[in-house]
Amino acid sequence: MRKPAEKYMLPVPTEDGIFIAHYSSQGLCGLEFPTASKARNNAASSAKDIPARVTEWHQRTSGAVQRALAGKPLSKLPPLDVSCGTAFQQQVWAVLSGIALGKTLSYGQVASAIGKPKAVRAVGAACGANPIPLLVPCHRVLAANRKIGGFSGGLEWKQKLLQREGVALG
DNA sequence: AAGTATCCATTTA
DNA sequence: TAAATGGATACTT
User: Fold this and answer.
1) What is the pLDDT of residues A48-89, one digit of tens each?
2) Which of chain C's bases lie under 7 Å from a protein CB?
3) A41 in helix, strand or coil?
4) Is the distance between the Cβ of A113 and the closest atom of strand B smaller than 7 Å?
5) For residues A16 and A29, what is the distance between their CA atoms, to the nearest angstrom?
6) How far is the CA of A99 from the C1' of B12 (A)?
7) H or E stretch at A20
8) Torsion-angle region of residue A70: left (phi > 0), alpha (psi -120 to 50) or beta?
């Protein structure tokens, strides 16, 4: 997990800022929020050394990100390289990506979905370790009390995204 | 409402 | 390999 394979980093321009998409040879490996502070990290390498498939993935990623920001369903995603995570994390992320648009789940529900209702904290940890916050909708997972909980990429994003999806935050 | 106990996964020694 | 830490929880007082 802690082996950072060489990966490509491409910018994903959106109305909300520039996201940075990370690609490994296996697929989309991570997505970085604009986080205003270092939004324009020119990490984006121009893509001459980038394989064609990565470019194609990037197209899908860009589209998906923009749709997600607009509160619309994600039609198609590039392959996600979740190998950077543990088996448990992958399981959690799979559940998260299965959450319907505009629907929210509690950490307890997610834990139950993977067969370990008591692993709610572990689920939270897995969400925090989620490298692709937007496309793997950890923002649709609320705390048990229907509270907002936390969010690695910035709590403000979580609220904003939920509101755009029409989720009433109580 | 606040504090304490619990439980799983991850990280570190 | 084993022990310690963390956490976005849940329960109890």
Assistant:
1) 678 999 999 999 999 999 999 999 988 789 999 998 889 999
2) 6-10
3) coil
4) no
5) 21
6) 34
7) strand A17-23
8) alpha
Q: Is residue A97 a contact partner of residue A130, using CB atoms and an 8 Å limit?
A: no
Sheet holding A28-32, edge to edge: A8-14, A17-23, A28-32
Confidence of residue A144 (pLDDT cuts 50, 70, 90): confident
Contact A20, A32 (CB under 8 A): yes
Nearest C-alpha neighbor of A99 from the set A44, A138, A134? A138
DSSP-based three-state secondary structure for A105: strand
Distance (Å, rounded) from C-alpha A157 to C-alpha A170?
Answer: 17
Kindly give the pairing relationship between strand A8-14 and strand A28-32.
unpaired
- The alpha carbon of residue A6 and the mean position of all alpha carbons in its chain are separated, in whole angstroms, by 20
Distance in angstroms, CA of A139 to C1' of B2?
27
Q: Is A19 in contact with A26 (CB distance < 8 Å)? A: no
Start-to-end CA distance of chain A, whole Å, equals 37
Q: Which amino acid is at A58?
A: H
Q: Which two tokens stand for residue A5?
A: 């394979």
